[in-house]
Amino acid sequence: MKRRQFLWSSLLFVAGCTTATRQPERNRSQTAANCPDPLRLAITDIKGLEQLQAEFGAFKSALADVLGRNVEFFSVENYVAASPALLSGRVDLVLAGPSEYVLLHARAQAIPLIALTRPDYYSVISVRADSGIKSLKQLKGKTIAMRTAGSTAGHLGSTKLLVDVGLNPQSDFRTVMTGDRGLEALQNGEVDAWADSNIRRTQFLREAGLSESAVPIVARGTDLPSDVFAANSQLDPACLEEVRSLMLAAQDQLLKGILASAANEKYASSEMVAAKDSDYDPIREAYRAIGQDDYL
């Protein structure tokens, strides 16, 4: 998912605004009576009701139909703000990226409900063709452009690649966060390597008119964990199980709602599967590697 700036600060409450979708009374018996009505939904990387409605309005309507309950959007400033919203009971369901979920689980005991798979979602580290760098170990003492602090593919997944070959991110290489400027920084010689997701790398190369061989990949990671619908741990377990079951059974309808917006093209090949917390352990390992144990 798109990543906002990572906040290394205390959690702040951010006021949420809601907008509801009313569903026919005949559908209400589909879900357990102890499920909340309305069910409040947050998307961690989208700010404001207008953007929420534009990108996930069709999904919200589909979800309300599947669950037989009203669904309201809850707008959060960023994923940091989603934690206190979960803890205070103001949000019931959150769609979060892998790194965001790990923090939501640690800070608010969020329960992984449904994983939204993202095939071909993995980290890559690229170099200039004339750099002479052929392996990750050659990046010791070098400067590496990464996306934003806390980004799943552009920071944590890439860092784990380097850790796995024995490099210490706190001493063996220098990381600079360049956002969308990673390829530019590499071309200009500001950095020795550029780390990001394979999807964004392909996009940036295409926009710059560069061939794959001009910026070769020196290493690629394994597939990263899925985005995840995480639930408020204060909800009744029977409700959570029924919501999970209904969403999985109606995933074609729900995915159609997600893909109604071109902004969600990254989910074009996605599936919904039951989420497992252990699938996100590689992200936790990366947080520890960069010295952020306290956030876990």
UniProtKB/TrEMBL annotation:
Gene3D superfamilies hit by this protein: Periplasmic binding protein-like II
Annotated InterPro entries: Solute-binding_3/MltF_N
Pfam family, one: Phosphonate-bd
Matches recorded under PROSITE patterns: PROKAR_LIPOPROTEIN
Ranges of residues in domain Solute-binding protein family 3/N-terminal: 38-271
Domain of life: Bacteria
Full protein name: Phosphate/phosphite/phosphonate ABC transporter substrate-binding protein
Organism: Oxynema aestuarii AP17
